[in-house]
Give the backbone structure.
Amino acid sequence: MRVALLLAPALSVIVVLFGGGMAVAVSRSVGWMPVIGLTDPSLAAYAVVFADPDFWASFALSLHIALTSTALAAVLAVASALLLRHSFAGRGIVAFLFQLNLTVPHLVGAIGILYLFSQSGAFARLAYQAGAIAVPGDFPALVFDPYAIGIIAQYVWKEAPFIGLIVLANLQSVGEDWEGVARSLGAGPWQRLRHVVLPMIGPGLVSACAIVFAFAFGAYEIPALLGASHPPAMPVAAYRAFTDVDLAQRPRAMAMSVVIAVVAGVAIWAYLRAARRA
Amino acid sequence: MRDIHTTVLAAAMTVLPALAAADTDDGDSLIGADWDTIVAQARGGEVNFFLWGGSDDINRYVTEYVGGILADDYDITLNRVGLNDTAEAVNIVLGEAEAGIDDAGSVDMIWINGENFRTMKQADLAWCGYVDTLPNGALIDWDNPSIANDFGLPVDGCEVPWSTAQFAFATNTALVEDPPRSIAELIDWVADNPGQFTYPAPPDFNGAVFVRHVFYHAAGGPDRLLGDFDQATFDAVAAETWDILNAMEPDLWREGATYPQSLSAMEQLFANQEVALTFNYEPASVGVNIENGTFPPTARGYALTDGTIANTNYTVIPYNSPNKAAALVLQNVLLSVEAQIEKADPAVWGARPGIDFGRADAAAQAAFAAVGRHPDVVPVAELSANALPELQADWIAAIEQGWLDNVGN
Amino acid sequence: MTDGLWSRRMRLLGGLVLVTWLMLPLIPLGVWSVARGWFFPDLLPTAWTLEPWRYALSDVGGVPGSLGVTVGIAAGATLLALIVGVPAGRALGMHDFRGKRLVEIAILAPVIVPGIAVAMGLHAVFLRAGLTGSVWGVMLVHLVPVLPYVVLVMAGVFANHDPRLEDQARSLGAGPVAVWWHVTLPAILPGMAVAALFAFLVSWSQYILTLLIGGGRVVTLPLLLFNFATSGRNDIAGAIAVIYVLPGVVVLAVTARYLTGRGVALRGVAR
């Protein structure tokens, strides 16, 4: 059929590269690779990984980073979208900067956050000039810290505009008629937000948040740059295991990556459920 | 344009492997061959040199000076590949060996020493036995145990020295005019000055050697530790070392909750007065960093009275390098008197030579003696008066793992 | 309306806060790129210099080469993605068929699943195929996140495409190639441009995929930037960062009118 012909090239690429890559990762994580003589599948790598308290520390950290970043970005995004809905002086600049932010790669933002938030960074120097601190050590630890504050700040900085633009598009296409009706019935602004606006943008918001969550959980370069040495975020732990000269660590690295993929799978499920409601 | 060159080259190398010209992967035929034959075989080819890329001075020296000699005198293209960590290159060779790629490797030479070299030597990944083929190989003093042994592991002709280094400290004189000049003094100083000191977490190269200095201090000197690994001695000394470092932890930067992940990270802290002291295997880097604006001009290097560890760094050719002839030419150039003098110039790099100038002619010796020193770098004589040897690899691995298990968690 | 959550005064304030917050991380990068000797607690560098730019634009640091490699890989991945993605977008946008849901999930999965798992799996395969450490290998692995974006954007474009135009042309006797060239292509070209530019941006910002498959041999701009940022050369890192964001700004300038317009582009908007 003609549709099959149209889809075939793209689907084959995705099946071979994405599907194949995931399949190899999973099979290597269970130690099954006949090509190099491993024909004894076992969950040994997973057992080692799940028994390791360091793994759970990394998992918890990445979960914390992803949930907190997504929640904060979502709140900021909705607030900004409501702001940008109507015109005001300077709206064009803000809208332009929102879009500009989308084109700035994550790594650049992360380096910028580092220069702003480190104990000898821009904010610390301002604090010193204001007399609030005497030495860099007095400034709170916002990067390389156990709460991943710098990492979360970077994700919020980058993803709030992303979610915000999607929410804004939804708001604009939905229009304000329903809110007008609610207002005429006596509902105040917060009530209108909770009962009219949020349900309408809900599906789009959840879809966008699913994407952001999966990214914040599984991205490597931001925690590699801004994270504390211990515990490392999950992708950093997986990469370290993968590049360890001890080749026995490889299946464990694959196991950790599969865990990351499973968490992303949960995000996909959430995305699809929300999209179905749209 | 270089980008087109890169793309075309990559295309050629993946699509038309048979046409990879001047493939000199057969090492055996090169060993003991006539030098001119080797140079003729290498001419017109290329060599891929993998080395730590975090210093633009080193990058400039390798790309412009060394690359220039190779291009002008031998018509060989030098491809410098900058790494974040030498282990990355070792990993490439390891992966290729595992995949059975024995004669078309992507790595021709690695700047290496210590544990990375041990990985390569033990896995038979290094090409060995060719050193006598190099004309400038005569300049190497293999009788010197610190040259013949790389972190206690006999070199056995599997790598060639490039520079020697000795661990040295540096202080920010704006914060600390009179720094602690021995490990014992340092321990007391940290307790009196909380938050002003830290060290990179092992397995970072420089962090690991700092921990080894504390280990030597706990053992009362290195004498008991030289030679083969002894579990009983290790356990006794290690217990005391971890006690010292754990007691120090609350007085470190960030109360020891996190350690800098690399020497560069710690040098940044030093530059911004987050910590008052720093250290480096390469003492000349203090001068280099002052000159390029990374360090404040008030930084000054200093030696320890109870000595610091000295070692050698090398270049290794992987067994599966397809450009061995060109790699030999490159190594010969790196060993040459001219290149070593240029490298020792503090305006260029400041690294101390890996060859023995006593074996060179009088003109070379005079030229080397004339090389200056950056005023804020600790004098070589002061350092080498108290040079401590490295331990054998098993000790080093045990100390690193011990730190991770007992201190760094 | 001013009786929403945002009053007029609050709007201006909110706008100001947003502008500052969006610009803030980029400012120190720009300053560092012309700084010499900038230590705590100085608010401004001790001296100004163009040395970081001189180094960044010279061959020694490898920045121009890296820029070329990054552009080449992004362009190649974009081209490949367009070739296979435009037809797939047409199928998704203009046709309903059994299993469409499944296809949509298959297209979506590479967008959401982080690249580290896929790249680790592909590494072993690519190693044997001789693709690791090569520009082609990196280009192929970039297809994994890039292709879905192209398909999704084109699906939106084709959803708004009227098939009757093509029917008319065909009924007037035009062959399929002529129909494609004279009717379909001009209609979808703006959308294709958006898809292409977003695809380029997605490849442009890839890090872990290039790191794992490139094996240290393929050094794209983000890898080089990371190396300099972690080795303490903030000045050089600043210069490279500015160079690195420039193409994105160019992309924005070209596609601005498409972006603020229809929601169709936003469904496939790049991160």
